[in-house]
Write a structure and sequence with these properties.
The structure is a homodimer. The first copy, chain A, is an all-alpha fold. Chain A folds into two domains: about 50 residues, Arc Repressor Mutant, subunit A, CATH 1.10.10; about 150 residues, Tetracycline Repressor, domain 2 (Orthogonal Bundle). The first copy, chain A, contains nine helices and no strands. Chains A and B meet through helix 6, helix 8 and helix 9 of A and helix 6, helix 8 and helix 9 of B. Chain A binds a DNA duplex (30 and 30 nucleotides) through helix 3.
Chain lengths: ~200, ~200
DNA sequence: GATAGCCTTAAACGATCGTTTGACTCAGAC
DNA sequence: GTCTGAGTCAAACGATCGTTTAAGGCTATC
């Protein structure tokens, strides 16, 4: 079975991402999940130890990718004299939107948004540990380009940018992709709107 | 028992708001809930019919209040020649932040944010039905003050404002209230930041 | 005091959950 | 050929879930 398809472990991870996003962490049962993945019920506990560790693994797999893309994009422009605020925002925003369009789904960002909403302290700490240094690097670059802002003012504004981004990613909003617009085009439109909106919100006097 | 305290129905609603916010709709069981409320397990099904209808009722109670406050604030300023963009944003934002600080809780907005994240279509329709006319009125007023924006451009920007607001309300962000700042002061700071950020994001050329 | 209707109560119901168990398969090492 | 260990499988475990039931308490009405 592994020869023609993915490994059992990866089949579980893929199915988990879809079902967690669709029904939540509690809402998606291991029986649904393993049925969708075409594996035995006991396989989750065998390969991951528990459902909670599976959840963690789903996150880690995607967040590592997002982290690396963001940092790579930032490294290309950080510190350069000709770098604009919009460039930094693009490095922050585009990888996130791309990730939500990558492979198995627009769905992962709903998983993430849901995790935020769950407001679980364990998960919060996990995200902070894996994201802390990324946010610090972006904050430093924003600070360089917005020297007229106090530290606290800058934190506030970055936080609101994050809110707008999270909202846009998770597809909560009124704005839905219309059927005559491809997913790629919609993503680029979203990025463009987010970048302009955020640049204005960040840099206003 | 009802004479010295609230009615059973209201005790359930109050406890539900707290526990739904803390543990989610699935995560909070009726047994926890009724124990916290000091009522019998069967009381929920007797008074509300089912757990789902209880969830709905928790929402309705708060959203009706939010709706009415927003519309009242908007009515005071809509159409006036001296009304500014910041005024409309204040009418949109402040009632939401006040609600998240009202009575039994900072918690309701976490409930709401969680509901967004649950992404349930039933709940989405419910919110759209109860919120549709409010959003339309605000959109009309925004359109009046921002005549240079196309309809679609305006929709996008309002959506991003909503995202920033939701994010700020639900306490996800990095920005946490410090212990030496009162809750009221923190709320006013949040409102001020949100209004200025959103005004810049909405009105930029 | 009897009756009726609202409400509360303890107990049970069936379903479903995450997890564990023990047997089975099967490829590679010796 | 035998043994080993990783992986898969059906079945069961105990716990917990939302909901229902049947009995009883309480108040108001007559």
């Amino acid at each position: 079975m592994q020869t023609s398809q993915q490994s059992t472990k990866e089949r579980i991870l893929s199915a988990a991402e879809v079902l967690f996003a669709r029904h939540g962490f509690d809402g998606a049962s291991l029986r649904q999940l393993t049925a969708a993945a075409g594996v035995n019920l006991a396989a989750v506990n065998y390969h991951f130890g528990s459902k909670d560790r599976l959840v963690e693994e789903v996150f880690r797999r995607r967040l590592d990718e997002l982290n690396s893309r963001r940092l790579k994009a930032l490294a290309r422009i950080a510190g350069h004299p000709e770098t604009t605020l919009e460039d930094v925002l693009a490095a922050f925003i585009k990888p996130a939107l791309e990730l939500s369009h990558d492979g198995s789904g627009t769905l992962f960002m709903r998983v993430l948004a849901r995790a935020f909403a769950e407001h679980d302290d364990t998960l919060r700490r996990f995200l902070s540990e894996n994201y802390g240094h990324v946010m610090r690097q972006f904050t430093a670059e924003f600070a360089r380009l917005l020297p007229h802002l106090s530290k606290e003012e800058l934190y506030w504004r970055i936080d609101l940018v994050t809110g707008a981004l999270t909202h846009a990613m998770s597809g909560f909003g009124m704005i839905q992709r219309k059927s005559d617009v491809t997913e790629t085009m919609h993503r680029e439109q979203t990025a463009a709107h987010l970048i302009r909106f955020s640049a204005a919100g960040l840099s206003h006097p």
